[in-house]
Amino acid sequence: YGWCTQSRTRIMALVRWSERQPKETAMRQLMGRLNQAHWQLLANPFYRPEVGALISSERFLSTLDQIKASL
Fold this sequence. Notes:
Layout: E1 2-4, E2 10-12, H1 24-43, H2 58-69
Antiparallel strand pairs: 1-2
């Protein structure tokens, strides 16, 4: 699934399902939560993103783990 925000940030989620495909509303909520986590990271004045580098923020990765666990 993919999502392009108004700021042209592209978010992609690969979802593995066993029996049936996830509902569209659940995927929209997932993408919204991922977008919110990304904006919280960018709003941190101490975060310095590097062009082309992977995000290594422990707080961001922890939030992603929480989102993953809630699925």
